[in-house]
Amino acid sequence: MSRRKRIVVLGGGFAGINFIKEFSKHTRHEIVLVDENNYHFFPPLLYQVSTAFIEASNISYPFRRMFQGKENVRFHLGKFRHINPIEKVVLTDAGEVSYDYVVFAMGTKTNFFGMENIKRKALPMKTIDDALLMRNHILLNMEKAVRAKTLKEKEKHLNIVIAGGGPTGVEVAGMLAEMSLKLAKKEYPEVQDLKTNLYLVDVMPVLLQPMSKKSQEEAYSVLSKLGVHIVLNTAVKDYDQGKVIFSDGTEVETEVLIWASGVVAQNVQGIPEESLGRGKRILVDQYNRVTGTDNIFAIGDISLQISDPNFPNGHPQLAQVAIQQGSLLAKNLKLIISNKALYKVFRYNDKGSMAIISNTRQW
User: Fold this and answer.
1) What angle do CA 180, 110, 266 make, to 5 degrees?
2) Beta-bridge partner residues of 199
3) Cα(315)–Cα(301) distance, integer angstroms
4) pLDDT (mean) for 173-196
5) Nearest to 83, CA basis, from 293, 358, 361
């Protein structure tokens, strides 16, 4: 048997957690999870936190409680800064962590496409903090609308622009529109018609571009019936002085720009430049080993694997990809450490995708 190894996992999302769940069964070796938050959360339901439908505690769970009783799992609270492959050390803002093997599973961050005004003023939705900030910001603007003295001022506080017609943008638009129909009249009698102040903007000619034509048409139909203004073939170009500016020159005066228009991989300092691919994703082989390395791996949204014949341009950045890659890498790494043949190459089992547009039950 080989000596006790330390595996450092950077990121406690779907990929990292599923890797740890599987690998921790191999109790001989040590696992150290590094994350800037001390909890795991469920990103698909962030939009419900941001619209005040559920509380953040409903979709989050502490790492330490999750792994209590697993003597070979430790947690390091810290933000990743740099990896030194020569000395086998990961540097965080809370100190250094040595490793024998390291697994990058940090996911993605919001892509503002270099637009500084939007980066400073728009509301992204990637973390629980983002969702809570959005919820509070929207509710505060509702209160400002109630106190508004003129119709123009009222509309400015009620207008909401959502940039991005993917699943996140569509789900947020649907929830906000439905809430306006069911809740606004009860809780904000001074504000009777929020739905006509919602704008969903996307540069593509359809909503839910990666999904089927039927899903795209259904999303467009449902949101239109809910009163959402859908603006396609149009990009958001700037957000300045309380105005969202579209690529066609149209302007919408608003205090709320929700940014759901794209993601980019987290910054990885210390990885060779040739190991980074499109969108700064880390290039990996069929076993999720980082190109040009022996003991560094990447799984989930941060990885770019082009060896799967069904996905020659890389896998979609979805939870199911992360879950499957995390579980398989754990099995493979056990064999790698034991100098045995690899378990198998990664092939994504596509179980489909879903976007929840609205809630049909009565409030």
Assistant:
1) 150
2) 161, 229
3) 9
4) 76
5) 293
- Structural tokens at position 28: 């001989």
Q: Which amino acid is at 115?
A: M
pLDDT-above-70 percentage for the chain:
97
pLDDT at 232 over 60: yes
Q: What gap in Å lies between CA 19 and CA 260, rounded to an integer? A: 28
pTM for this model (two decimals)? 0.91
What 3 state SS string does the chain have? Answer: CCCCCEEEEECCCHHHHHHHHHHCCCCCCEEEEEECCCEEECHHHHHHHHCCCCCHHHHEEEHHHHCCCCCCEEEEECCEEEEECCCCEEEECCEEEECCEEEECCCEEECCCCCHHHHHHCEECCCHHHHHHHHHHHHHHHHHHHHCCCHHHHHHHHCEEEECCCHHHHHHHHHHHHHHHHCHHHHCCCCCCCHHHEEEECCCCCCCCCCCHHHHHHHHHHHHHCCCEEECCCCEEEEECCEEEECCCCEEECCEEEECCCEEECCCCCCCHHHECHHHCEEECCCCEECCCCCEEECHHHEEECCCCCCCCCCCCCHHHHHHHHHHHHHHHHHHHCCCCCCCCCCCCCCCCCCCCCCCCCC
